[in-house]
Every structure is written in C-alpha cells, then in structure tokens.
Amino acid sequence: MDANVASAVQTVQMLRAHQLPDDQPCIEASSSTVNYEASFDTNFQDREGFVSGIAHYVEEAQNLGTLNDMLEQGRQYAGMLYTWRYISRGVPQASSDDQENRTEIYRITVDVLKPHIDKLKQFYLFQGSAVQRFCEEVKKLSNPEKLKSFVSETTKITLIKMIDLFATLNALKNAKSSVRNDCSLYRRAFGILNAGQPTNPEDADIERKLVFFLGTENCLCNDVVTEVRKIPHYLDVMHELADTCIRLLETDGYVLPDEKHTLLKAISFIVYIMDDPEEKIGIYKVKKYNHHKYDALFKETPVVPLYGDMHMQLLSFVQMGPHYDRAKWPQANEALSSEHIDTYHNITAQLPAFEAERDELVSLLALLSTKDVAGRLAVATTERASDVALRGLKTVSRWTTAIRELHGWKLANPTDKYLNRNCPADAEDYERAVRYNYSAEEKAAVVQIVTMIKDVLRILWKMESMLNLGIRVEIYKETQSFIQHNVRDMVRHCIKKKKAKARTVLMGLRNTCADWAAGFEPEDDPYMRGIKDTAYQPPEIGNRHCGPGSTQLFMMRTMLESLCADDKKKSLKHDLDSKFHGPMLTFYNSTKHYFHLLNFKSSLQEAADLSQLWFREFYLELSNGKHIQFPIDMSLPWILVDHVLTSQDPGMIEYALYPMDLYNDAGGFALRAFQKQYLYNEIEAEVDLCFDQFVYKLSENIFRHYRCKAASQVLDEEFKGDPALKSININQYNNDAHYPSLMRQRHFQLLGRSVNIHRLLSQRLNAKLKQAIDIAIGRFESMDLTGIIELELSLKVSRAMHEMLTQHLQLDPYEELLNEANNSVTSAYGRITLQVFAELCTDVIPNHCYNTADRRFIRPERAPVFGEGEPQRESAPRAAPEMRFGSKLLNTAYAAVTAKFTSFFGVEHLSSAVRLLEYRGVALCIEEMLKIVQANITDVLTPYVANLLDGMPKSCRLPLIDYGSVGAMGFYQLQLKDIMAYPDLQTEVFHSFREVGNSFIIFVLIEQVLSVLEVEETVLAMPFQGDVPCLVKGGGWCLKRRNGVLQRLRPVLQRIPLITTRMAHCDAAMAKQADVLTKERLYKGLSIFKSVTMTFKTMLESDATDHSLWFGAKAPNGVVDVDACTSFYRLWSAVQYTSLVSAASRGVDQITEFMGDGLYWAGAVIIALLGHRGLFETSDFSYHIIKAFDLDHKDESVSGVSVPMFVKFARKRRALNNAIFATMERYLFKSKNKAADPAYIPPPGCGIEV
Fold first, then answer.
1. What is the longest distance spanned by two Cα atoms in the chain?
2. Domain CYRIA/CYRIB Rac1 binding: where (predicted)?
3. Is position 604 within any domain?
C-alpha cells in the first residue's frame, strides 16, 4: 500500500514538469519573457593562440581588433548623439545680470551639464583618433607594393565600416542643434563662474576646438577628406574599397540590412573623397574610376536609412564634390523624383513575390521539423540545415530591408495637402512624413510584410536548437573535409612542384583548422612528403557539432583568399594547379556566411529588427521643443495596428498583434544599443496607451461584428420572407472574420509582460453586452407598449450574440447580464415588468380602444382626453448604431419590421410581454390591474351605478310586440329620458366602464397567450416525462415495429428517474415538483382568467360594494321581478340603448370609436359574473326593438333617430355581446363538461384502439 502511495505521489510530482499544449493559435511574434544571447566572438583576442598560422595574418588580426573596438566605440557615440535632447531648456535661466541667485543658477547649470560636456569632449577626441587611425590604415594600403599585393577582404570591409561610421557621426552632429546649444550654455555659465580665474590651457584648447567642431557643418567629413587626400595613391585605395562594395552588392555578399546600407553609404562617401580638386586625377578624369556604375547603383536605392528616423540621399556626398555635374549623374537624379517610388519602392508590387518566398520557406521549414512517432523526419529531404537557415536569414533580411528603405524614402519625401487631401495645411513635419504619407494599400502591404517577418522569425527561433546543431555539424564536416582531404592534395602538389610559399600557407591552414579524430595529425601520410600512395587511407572525419571560432574563421578565410585571389594582386593562385582553383573558390565562397550562421540567433534578430520604425529623435529635434514626444497617431507602429482594426478586410484581423511587436523591437534596442532608460519609459508609456486603445477598438470591432451576425441570423429566421426587406442584403453580415484567433490569446508577450487578451476582451465585451441590454430596456422605457416587439428582438439578438461569444470568451451567463441590466437582482421586480405594468395601467387601459374582431387595441384619433391622458416618458438613451442591431442598415431593417406593430397593441405584443415577464411578471401585472379594477369599481363605478339606478324607472315592462318597432322605441325614449340626459354618462361613466372592460380583455388575451406557450412547453416535455407519442400507420415501417422503437427510447428519454436517483436530495425534489407542475398544466388546464374573474366576482359579492346595487333587490315572488329596474342588467340595457341611440342619430358609432369594445366588455363580463345573462338577453330594450323590427320593417324615425339605423347598430351590439358571453362560458363554466380523469385520446386513423 505504501509503495502505491509513493508511486502515486511521484507521478503527481512529475506532472509539474509536464507542459500542456496550448490551444491558442500562433498569431504573434516569437514570445519570450527573457531573452539571452551566447556570443563566442573574441574580437581576435585569441590571435596569439594560432602560432601555427601565418604571422602576417596574426598581425592583421591585431589591427582589425583595434579597428573593431573603435567601431564599437563609435556606435556608442552615435547613439549618444542621436538620443541627445535639450538639457538647456530644462535648466533655469538667469533673467538679468542683477538677479540675486544668478551665481547659484550658473553653478547648477555647470553641475548639470558638465557630465554631458565631458562626453562630448571624449567624442571629439575619439573622432580625431579614429580619423588618424583610418588614415594610417589607408596609408599602409597606398604603398605601391601593397597596392599590387593581396589585401584581405576582412580588412577592406572593416575600412568600409569606418567610412560609414564617419558619415553617420557627421550627419548626427550636423542634425543635433541641441548639442551645440547645450555646449554654448555650458561655456557661458562656466565662463561667468570662473571669470578672472586661471584655467588649464589644454582644457581651454579642447573646449575651443570642440565648439568649432560642433559649430562647423560637415567638419568631420571634411577632416577625413582632407587627411585622406594628403596620402599618395589614395585614389587607388578608395577605388578598391568602392569596387569591393559593388562586388559585395552584386554578388549578394551581405546578409543583414545594415550591411547593405553600410556598403551604399560608403560608396557615396568614397566618391566624394575621390572627387579630387586636382583636375587631372579626379574620379571624373581617370577612366578606370568609372563613375557610371555608381550612378546606376544609386538609381536602385537613392535614399537609405541613416540612423533612427534620419535618412541619407546617396547623392548628398557626391554633390559636395568640387567637380559635381548633374548631367554626369542622370540616373541617380532621376531616382530622386517622386515617380521613383512606383518603380523601386512600390511595396504593394513586391508583396506577391514576398508571399511566394514565404510559402516556399515555410514549406521547407515544415519538412525539416515534422517528425514521425519514432522521432525521424516524416518526409525525407536533401536540404541542409545550414542552407535552409541561410535562406531564411536572407529572406527575412530582404523583407526587412524593403520596409526600412520604404520608411527612409517616406521620410525623405513627405507629403503635403496637394498630394494628400487628408493632410492638413498645418500638419507637423513628422505627420507629413509618416501619418499622411502612407496610402491604405501601402499600410496593408507593410502590415503583411511585418507579419511575414515576425512569423518566419518565430518559426526559425522555434527551430533554433535544431538548426544550430545542423549548422555546426555541417560546417564542421565541410571544413574538415576540405582541410583534411582537399588541402592534402594541394600540399602534395606544392611539395612536388616546390612551391614553398603556397605550401607554407596550406600547412598553416591545415595546422590552424584541422581537427583530427585521433587527436593528432597522422605522421605517416605520404602526401605530406609529396608522394602519391593510393593504398594509404586518410583518417575518417569525426562527427562533431563544433564550428570554427571567430579568429580561426578569419585566419582560414584570409589564407584561402590569398590562395585564390585575383592574379593582379600577386596572390599564390598561380602556384597551384588549375584543377584546385574551382574547389578552393567554391569552399571560400561558402565560408563567407559562416560568421552569421555560427551566430544564427543574433544574426536573425538583427535581420528582423524593425525598431527604427518607432524612433523619432530627429523630428523631435526639428519640432523645436513643441513636442516632448509625438502622440500615438503619429507613431508608425500604432498607425499600422489601427489600420488593421479599421480596415474592412476580415482576413487582416489576424495580423493585428504583429505590428505591436515593433514596440518590443524598439524597447529592446533602447536598452541594448542606446542604453537609455527614459527612451524605454517613453516606449512603455506609449505601449500602455496603445494597448488600451487596441483592446478598446478590437472589442468594439468584435462586438459590432457579432452583433451584426446575430442580428442578421435572428432577422433571417423571423422575417426571411418579409417583402419590406427585399432591398436589404442581410447575408453580407454572415461572413466570419478571424476574430476567434485573437480572442483565444491568453499570453501575448509585450515588453516582457504576458498579457491575457482573452480576459481583457471578456471583461469589455461582458460590459458591452450588458450595456446593449440596458440600452434596449431604456429604449423600451421611452416608448409605448408597442416597443416591446423591438425589445424582444433586441434581447433575442443579445442572446444569440452571447451564445456566439461564449464559444470563445468567458462571459457571465446571459440571464445574469439580463437581470443586472433589468435591475431584477436588487429589486423585487425588474424594469421590464414595471414598464409593462405602468404602460398597461396608464396608457393601454385608459387610452386605447379595443376591437374584438381583430383583437387589437388602437389609440383613437380626435378622442376626448380622460384622466391624465397619454403618460409622459423619458427620452430614449443615445446609443451608437451597433448598440441596437449592429449597423445602420440592420437598424433600418428591424425598424421596417417593428413598424408593422407600432400602430396597434394586440396579441403579438402580449406574447412578447409574456415571454419576457414569465410567470412572476405576469402575476404582478394581473395583480396590480385587479387592484385598479377594484378601485375603479369601488370608488368610481359604484357611485355612478347608484345614481343611474336612481334615475331608472321603478318598473319598465317590455311593450307588446303589436306596438311595432316605432312604438317600442318611442316607449323607451320616454322611459329612459332621465338616463339619457345624465351629463356624465357618455364621458366619465363610459370611460370607467372602458377601463374595466379593457382590463378584462387583457386578462383574456394573456390567458390565450399563456395557453399556447404552455402547450408548446408541455408537448416538448412529454417525451422526457415518459409520455411517448402514438404513431399513425404508413411511412414504410410497420406500426408495431415503430412503437417498439419508441418503447425502447422511453427509458433513454425519461430523465425524472435518473435525476431522482443520482442527484442531490434538493435537486430531486425540485425535479419532482417540476414534473407534477408540468402534468398539472397539461391535464387540468389551469386558467389564469378563471381565477381573475372569480376574484372579481368575490369582490362584487363582498361588503366593499352594495350587494343589491349589482344583484338587484329581492323579488317579491322570490324568483325574479322581470319588470323591476333595480338590477345592473336592467341598467346596462339602458346604457346600451343610450349608446345605440347616439350612434343611430349620428349615423356613426362615435362612442365605440372613442371607447372601443372595452365599454361593452365591462357590462357583459359583470352580467355574466352576476349570472344574469339570460335575464339580460330576455329583457334587453334594444333586443326587443330588433324583434319588433323583424316583424314590421318600418323605415321611420323616432325623435330624429332612424329605426333601421338603430336596429343595424343593435344587431352588431348583440353579436358582440354573444361573443363576450361565449368567451366567459368557455373559461368559467367549462368544468361542468370536464371528464373525471384525464386521458390521452389518439387522433383518428392512428390504428390504436381506445
């Protein structure tokens, strides 16, 4: 037992180290919170270890190490100059010479500026020593003997980097006026503080030279040119350096973007140096210094990035030459025109080629990384890891170069209000260069290329360990195969031909790079004695993953280059047989990228570095203190992100996170290269703001998209065939954008922080959906009750939207959101319930007319106002179109649908109300309306009825039928003249009866709606309660077999036994109660209307009202007094007669138009509840006149009232009364015919015997 527990504990502990696979899509750049680099570049510090090499090359390595240190120091000074900001503006200035604290201000100024001025002094001293050292190297190479001898390519590339450094530092010094101003302020403050005191002459001389250096335009470049031109034969050295640049550019000898731009800038500066003031030796005079090849090169890339947001026109240095002629540089000048971008910087035209490269590269990487179960490659491939890595490195570098060159071109060619109508006339320089300078197509192309760069970078970094292993293994095998095999043959040839120099180099190469499997060089190799012995087997090459070191690689390449360089350079190429030239040159060319491959991670990071797209120190300097930092609308990374969010292309939404990675690049560069914390803080502040905007806009887009999608589905489902919507294309909203990929991002890496976008979107969309529900309810509260159709549709859309979003986000349950917006969490009744009740009681019941024929309430026109009239409502809340149904188009579509239900109130509206309110809300409305009816009866109608009964004749028997219709009508005119003359009868009395009648009508309609809904629910619930429906004959199956299938499904569908046996006690009890309630509703036919009417009848019989007032006095005969007018049914006959006389006299039933059928519903319901229907129909005045008219058909008038017209309206009234009585019979007295036990009766023809 203890062993099992220990094993279980051990297994659980092992789970800690197990990483569960993440199901989120990879739509971001390589994510790593901590990044590290392992650099094995020794900068030739280990050169003394290669004593077996050529001593001259060891000395050259020492010189190169010194130059590399200078280059690194120069890069640091370049970063210092570029990130220099005005310090003098933050230092208080003395307002006058009489200011008391003037000395203290100057002292503080000196203390603040002194550390920075000391750095400038160090920079000045550095540039002087760097120029001197560069001239010394050029002087070495300008020796006539040296010009004819071999010079290593590494040395020439290092000198080219020095030239590029001078050009960069010169441009930075010229651009930074803040440096000059801060230096001037320091000198002024320092001079005032130390006036009359002795100073160090050396320090004063340096300060004077520093001021002159900073204040002179192009001082650094002029110093370089002046010093170089003093060297004899400098033109040949410069020409060779320029040719090296061109060769590297033409033969793809560079890898990184900075390397390409370094070569181009160096060519421009070299051409300026070669434009010698001497007429006879300048670049334009000597034929071999053909400048036309430079002109063609400048045409392809006229503008290159210089540093950060600074750019450089390659012709800028050429134009500084004394013999510059525009006509001699036609292609380069043409390239500077605005039309040039269509040819060379048209990023949209380059995009298809880039995408094809991406597809090929990703497919190739997939072949190398896909393995089977056994760990072997799933698909065999002949591609080498080093070749694939180099291809990926160059491809990423080429894409990055395209982006950076486009950005440089845009900075060099800002737009204006004439080129871009969206550009304001007073736009900032940086705005014209960045914000308004990119078209929508260019932004989309840049976003896609950035996405490709970051995506391929992520794949390559993921495969880094595998690629690094393959690179080192392949480089080791290739190097050792050449050293141990090919060089062996060359050594034998040199010994045999007595080529001592070549033999020395080859042996040095062999001793420097060979790695013998046995640990030592074989001594019995006959080739080393110049003897060819085919029987001798050289040792096998070991299988190690170890590449050459940086110094070892330099020594190897330099010695190889000395053996295969051009014959014009006195190389040792002629000492070797021609058969060795090809393999040696091939191996030499293959080693030119070894350095980048051996430092694959750092090279890849440099190749994909787009940090310069964010930096804007140059333009901040140009703003002259107007901006401490530009707003995010001018920031290119945010411009790209915003374009993705605002574009209408659904396929681009997955690219939204890739431009955000530009902030990672900028933040890393600010810390690693610039080492400026304040720059990183500014980047971090912008990221905080941009990311908030990103999440906000993304949540808005997601909400709008899914709102439209849900609204189109609900609209299509409910009103697909509506002719009013034929002109609206609803299907356009059914497209599925790629939002789920973004919504599933749980750990997006941004500036070293892991951000849960999934959680942020869940929070915002949760609040947004609740707000949409709140707005829908608010709109309903601002409308009459017909707006409940729109409310239900809006809530349907919200529910459908919630179902879509919960597939990807963690939202609160929809019912909770609805309850919170409806205030039903903190209140006994929600806003919807209270609004429905209020509208029913204050608008529908008192102000609407009911038409029994179409079962609709309408608002009468030109009707007198009773009571308070139509209630005052709050104005609708203002909301964006997407908060309702997603868009203006869909809002229009839904408005067309709901417009059909705004002119009346009927069953459709009550159906929506019942579905929204459910039983609890319906019960509240009914309860409150009953209170209103009771108050109306008790406080209003009872006094009126009492007064009207007093005005009735004491006895009014029916006249003989022989009197005819005219006589009967004349008789009633005399008998009821007091009632007809009652002033409030046709106003307040009728209005009170209308309110009571409308209330009962609403009770009936609610009962009908609930009946339909309950039948639907119970029918759907029957299979789960064990009631399997019966089947009819036919359909291909025999009836017995089909019933057998249903019987087998019965235990599967029936859930009540399962719940009662397996769930908790409380859940089981609730399930039983729900089962009983469902069966009760199905079998017993529970009726709300019956309960309401019985309650009303009890109220009439209670002491609150006069019993005799409604039921009448007790008859003398103990049964009924047919002639007495003391009962309500006799009064109602008089009321009905009065309304008919009014209608017949006008020819229009104006009372019905103003009051509706609710007036007559009130009387008929009360009569039915009192049990006086038979008495009413027997003794009603208008019914008696109808009978008399049916016999005589006299077309006469009585007191101006047409008898036929009266009979016409009376017959309509009798039909209405019959319909009302039938309704009352159906609901109140159906229990008399109810069966004792409910039983299911199958339909006819089903073949089942009962």
1. 160
2. 70-252
3. no
| DSSP-assigned letter for residue 24 | S
Nearest residue to 475 via CA among 550, 536, 385: 385
Residue 262 lies in a domain: yes
CB 636 within 8 A of CB 407: yes
Which two structure tokens, joined as six digits, stand for 36?
């590290």
Shared-domain flag, residues 928 and 1037: yes
Using CA atoms, how far apart are residues 175 and 306, in angstroms rounded to an integer? Answer: 12
For residues 456-477, one letter each, b for 16 or more C-beta atoms within 10 angstroms of the residue's C-beta and e for the rest, the string is bbbbbbebbeebbebbbbbbbe
347 within some domain: no
For residues 818 and 773, the answer to whether their CB atoms sit within 8 Å is yes
Element of type H or E holding 701: helix 677-719
Considering only CA atoms, give the Rg of the chain.
Answer: 49
Classified as helix, coil or strand, 523 is coil
For residues 1124 and 1134, what is the distance between their CA atoms, to the nearest angstrom? 13
Q: Do β-strands 303-307 and 310-313 pair in parallel, antiparallel, or remain unpaired?
A: antiparallel
Alpha helices in 429-580 (DSSP H): 429-430, 440-462, 464-481, 487-497, 500-513, 550-564
Q: Quick check: 1158 and 850 in contact, CB under 8 A?
A: yes
Q: Which residues contact 173 (CB under 8 A, 6 or more apart)?
A: 81, 179, 213, 214, 219, 220
Residue 988's CB is within 10 A of a number of other CB atoms, namely 15
**In degrees to the nearest 10, what's the CA dihedral of 157, 160, 162, 168?**
-130
- Count CB neighbours of 631 within 10 A: 13
- Rounded CA-CA distance 757/751 in Å is 15
Please, what is the angle between helix 600-607 and helix 440-462, to 10°?
A: 170
Instruction: Please report, for residues 111, 254, 591, 1045, the alpha-carbon distance to residue 594 in angstroms, rounded to integers and kept in the order given.
Output: 49, 12, 5, 75
Give me the sign of the Cα torsion angle 646, 649, 654, 660: negative
Q: Is this structure's pTM higher than 0.90?
A: no
Domain with 780, as residue range(s), is 708-903
Q: What is the pLDDT of residues 693-748, one digit of tens each?
A: 999 999 999 999 999 999 988 886 656 566 666 666 666 667 767 899 999 999 89
Q: Report the distance separating Cα 1004 and Cα 1089, nearest Å.
A: 6
Cα separation, 1184 vs 1171, in Å, equals 20
Work out the number of other CB atoms within 10 angstroms of the CB of residue 111: 11
How far is it, in rounded angstroms, from Cα 86 to Cα 176? 9
Cβ–Cβ < 8 Å for 293, 328:
no
Return d(Cα 138, Cα 695) in angstroms, integer: 57
Distance CA 274, CA 243 (A): 13
Question: What is residue 101's DSSP assignment?
Answer: T
- Residue labelled with tokens 């104005």: 875
Task: Specify which residues 748 forms β-bridges with.
Answer: 755
Map residue 648 onto helix, strand or coil: coil
1125 with 1149, same domain?
A: yes
CA-to-CA distance for 228 and 135, rounded, in angstroms? 6
Domain end point (choices 903, 936, 968): 903
**Domain match, 248 and 201 both:** no
1216 and 1199 in one domain?
Answer: yes
Instruction: Indicate the residue type of 1127.
Output: S
Q: Give the pair of three-digit tokens for residue 680.
A: 């990183």
Token code pair at residue 1219:
């319909």
Q: pLDDT digit string (tens) for 241-291?
A: 999 999 999 988 899 999 999 999 999 999 999 888 876 667 777 677 777
Domain boundary among 336, 356, 382: 336
Q: Which two tokens stand for residue 980?
A: 């007809």
Q: Are 943 and 1091 in the same domain?
A: yes
Which residue in this structure is represented by tokens 């060795």? 580
CA distance 515 to 478: 12
CB 1132 within 8 A of CB 949: no
How many folded domains does the chain comprise?
5
Mean pLDDT of 1118-1135: 80
The CA-atom distances, in angstroms, between 246 and each of 107, 137, 240, 343 are: 54, 21, 10, 22
What is the rounded average pLDDT of the residues 319-344?
Answer: 79
Angstrom distance (rounded) from CA 345 to CA 1128: 96
